[in-house]
Each structure stands twice: as C-alpha cells, then as structure tokens.
C-alpha cells in the first residue's frame, strides 16, 4: 500500500496581479490565533496560480487548488474558478449594471460621450469645478 495520498489544499483569495503569462498572483487571507492574547489576527499569504485561459482580472475573488507537483519554482497552485468577478456588476433584481448604489444608464453613458466631444480634459475639469461651485453657493444661500 504505497499509494499515499496527500491532502490537496483549496484556498480562497483575491487576484492582485496578472502581469505574467498564464499566471495570477493571488493573496490569501487566513486568521491566526495569538495564544498570549487569545485573539485572532489576519495573516496574508501570496501564492502564484496557473491561469490557462488568462480570464482572471485584478480584484477578482478566485478559488485556487494546490497542484500535486509544482509547475515551476513559484507556481504551485491551479486557478479552479472565479467566484466573484470585479467590475461589470449586474443588480439581480433589476438586471441593470450598477456601481455601488447607482445604476449605469445607457442614456447617461451616451450623453456623457456626446458632451465631451471636442473639448479637452482640462476644459471639462474646469467647467465641472465652476458648475459645482455655483451650485454650492446657491445651496448655502449666499449671493453669487
């Protein structure tokens, strides 16, 4: 009975880098007990996971599985699947794209593109600052 099977680790982590080809840098956090204080503290570990399709992006929460044999000196894990993809979040109730508590409307996106045509970034910033200042003065009740 020489068939010794070792336990394969499965870890949950967040992708912090994808600059290498077919490899994702994943940060895994776990809680470690300090026996003197009897309190748990987070400990971070960084692992390199093989991402064959290069589908992971920075910020994604992924599930990685330990390989039976390391692929290279640093790559010892295989990216199993993406649990939560960062960005392009769709609200499950309305089915619209959202960013925090605000929704992305197709009308506002197209208007923003039309308004910015023919103006430089400095002009857009300056006009936005002037508009915000005028609105702030009107809400305070001070004359303009």
TrEMBL record:
Q: Which GO terms describe its cellular component?
A: mitochondrial small ribosomal subunit
Q: Which InterPro entries does this entry report, sorted A to Z?
A: NA-bd_OB-fold (IPR012340), Ribosomal_uS17 (IPR000266), Ribosomal_uS17m_metazoa (IPR039193)
GO annotation, biological process: mitochondrial translation
A GO molecular function term, named singly, is:
structural constituent of ribosome
Q: Where is this region: Disordered?
A: 102-144
In Pfam terms, one family for this protein is: Ribosomal_S17
Keywords, sorted A to Z = Ribonucleoprotein, Ribosomal protein
Family, as annotated: Belongs to the universal ribosomal protein uS17 family.
User: Which PANTHER family does the protein's record reference?
Assistant: 28S RIBOSOMAL PROTEIN S17, MITOCHONDRIAL (PTHR24088), SMALL RIBOSOMAL SUBUNIT PROTEIN US17M (PTHR24088:SF0)
Question: What protein am I looking at?
Answer: Mitochondrial ribosomal protein S17
């Amino acid at each position: 009975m020489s068939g010794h099977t070792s336990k394969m680790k499965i870890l949950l982590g967040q992708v912090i880098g994808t600059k290498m080809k077919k490899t994702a840098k994943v940060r895994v956090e776990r809680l470690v007990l300090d026996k003197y204080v009897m309190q748990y503290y987070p400990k971070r570990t960084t692992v390199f996971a093989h991402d064959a399709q290069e589908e992971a992006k920075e910020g994604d929460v992924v599930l990685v599985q330990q390989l039976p044999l390391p692929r290279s000196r640093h790559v010892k894990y295989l990216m199993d699947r993406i649990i939560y993809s960062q960005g392009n979040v769709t609200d499950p109730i309305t089915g619209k794209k959202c960013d925090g508590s605000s929704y992305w409307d197709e009308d506002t996106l197209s208007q923003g593109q039309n308004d910015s045509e023919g103006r430089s970034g400095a002009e857009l910033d300056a006009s936005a600052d002037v508009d915000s200042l005028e609105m702030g003065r009107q809400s305070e009740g001070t004359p303009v």
